[in-house]
Amino acid sequence: MLILKTKEKLAMKNLVVFGGAGFIGTNICKLALSRGYRVYAFDSLMRPGVEENLAFLKQLKGFHFIWGDIRNSSDFQNLPEKIDGLINVAANPSIPKSFLNPRHDFECNVIGHLNILDYAREHGGIPLIFASTMKVYTDSINLLPLKENKTRLLLKEKKYRFGFDEKTDIDGVDGFTNSPYGVSKFAADKYSREYAKHYGVPVVINRMSCIYGLYQKGVADQGWLDWFVRAKKYGYPLTIFGSGKQVRDCLFGTDLAELYLLQMEKINQYSGKVFNVGGGPEEGFNTSLLEIIAHLNKNYPGPQLKLTFADWRPSDQRVYISDIRKVKKATGWKPKTDIAKGVQQIWQSLP
Ligand SMILES: NC(=O)c1ccc[n+]([C@@H]2O[C@H](COP(=O)([O-])OP(=O)(O)OC[C@H]3O[C@@H](n4cnc5c(N)ncnc54)[C@H](O)[C@@H]3O)[C@@H](O)[C@H]2O)c1
Q: What range does the domain containing 265 cover?
């Protein structure tokens, strides 16, 4: 009996999730634990509110927490000896913060990620999944001709009916920009592919659009959909930057977690690959700000949302929907939870 138990333990996989106490990290840790992984969340708890996620995770069997900062590779000495997979979702995820303090953004998002890549390389090529972003694509897509209806902007050209693919403009020659956040994420995205090719570290890169869901600590600066639901529930005023007709595709956290684990299980098939990941162009998986505001006002109790309009945010793409055909074809994965259902789950989870 004792021998069997030891064998079982040996077969368990050890997964390290950098940023494991954050929104996406918590969704990944929770799912991985339910699949029998032994999970180590490494986090500096820099994001306010994530200690609540940590308290929840600590109740789950097989969960371990390591306090540390990815900017300091010496903090990695506390990682377990045997590691089967690494996931990096630790970062500064806020675009406005990256404008205020680009050096902090660079140190977390580039140096921190490089430290993880080096760790993976120095330990025999540990598989790694990296959370990149659609913000690696420049605002040159705002040059595309648009039409508009009462609630949203629409791209005129038919060729974008599936959304933007992985070959969308990154360079921004002649005056187009990304935001410091987009630049730091692209550096890490590119370093990941260099490490896959030159140092044999199996790496997958997911360029994600709006991810929302349970355990998100949405604020006006970051995590907008979760923030809108909170604003409706608690009567906070909302500032809309631009006309409110800007469009995003949205993916629920549990659907994203499914994808990460699926990729980890078959990492050698996907190594070095870049995927656009989001809700995609299907109805119910993308929305304008005005549309989701109308949805919240119509379907949830309490006073109507109080709106103030301000100027567009710098480098913000007016319409962005991920073309997810590549990731769907490669992995067989697809988003399951539409925005109405996802929002309902958030509403019910808020006290
Ligand atoms: N949420 C989205 O819509 C979205 C979209 C595209 C990409 N991403 C990327 O996904 C990742 C996770 O985003 P999230 O929404 O879960 O953010 P989050 O802020 O909820 O989680 C990030 C976690 O990383 C931790 N962290 C930050 N800096 C750290 C450091 N230097 N060392 C150790 N831990 C640190 C934070 O404390 C937090 O727990 C980020 O890389 C973000 O850029 C998020």
A: 14-144+161-218+250-285+317-339
What was the pLDDT predicted at 1?
A: 38
- Residue 315 has a pLDDT of 83
Residues of the chain with pLDDT under 70: 1-11
Amino acid at 316: D
User: Does 23 sit in the ligand 1 pocket, CB within 6 Å?
Assistant: yes
Q: What are phi and psi of 248, to 5 degrees?
A: -135, 150
pLDDT tens profile 258-284: 999 999 999 999 999 999 999 999 999
DSSP string, 166-204: TTS--S-TTT----HHHHHHHHHHHHHHHHHHHH---EE
Give how many domains the chain has, as a whole number.
1
In a domain, 223, yes or no: no
CA dist., res. 61 & res. 213, Å (int): 23
Indicate the residue type of 243.
S
Distance of alpha carbon 316 from alpha carbon 114, whole angstroms: 27
Residue 234 burial (CB < 10 Å; 0-12/13-18/19+)?
A: exposed
CA–chain centroid gap for 73, Å, is 23
CA of 105 to the centre of ligand 1 (A): 11
Please tell me the predicted confidence (pLDDT) of residue 5. 46
| 264: CATH | 3.40.50.720
Domain membership of residue 348 (yes or no) is: no
Evaluate whether residue 8 is within a structural domain.
Answer: no
Assigned domain for 7 exists: no
Both structure tokens of 113: 């990620």
CA distance linking residue 326 with residue 263, whole number of Å? 13
Determine if ligand 1 sits within 6 Å of the CB of residue 47.
yes
Q: Determine which residue's CA is closest to atom 32 belonging to ligand 1.
A: 69
